[in-house]
Amino acid sequence: MRVILQRVSKGSVTVDEEIVGAIENGYVALVGITHDDTQADVELLAKKTANLRVFEDDAGKMNISAIDADAGILVISQFTLYADARKGRRPSFIQAARPEQAEPLVDYYAACLEKEGIQQVEKGVFGAMMQVEIHNQGPVTIILDSDSL
Length: 149
What we know:
By secondary structure, this protein is α/β, with parallel strands linked by helices. The termini are close together. The chain has a single domain (about 1-149), classed as D-tyrosyl-trna(Tyr) Deacylase, Chain: A (3-Layer(bba) Sandwich). About 20% of the residues lie in helices and about 40% in strands. Helix 1 crosses helix 2.
């Protein structure tokens, strides 16, 4: 499982010209699932996401977690995180899990974030063509991979 966390001042996702999810002050979490990912991987990365201290304290230091910052998290499924562009000019997505495996795990990630104490968890629409608006703050972008934790 891979999650790209972008700390944002605001973020939103639009499907068919309708905003289906929006947050202020938090993360846009781009989530990719591969074939061997399990609920344990999801739980690990949700815990890491909620508790990672990259929000600024009063001294301007990154010392505050998403929980402590009362941050929202916008979860966007993104199979392209498992693109393999080593050969040729067209990436392969063979490492990305099929939708029937990936969708429940992305939903479970959102549920685990709520269980960790994130008050506002918004989601995109799995498999839809989405317009994602990201106002990266800092900029701060963190890559989490369950294979490296």
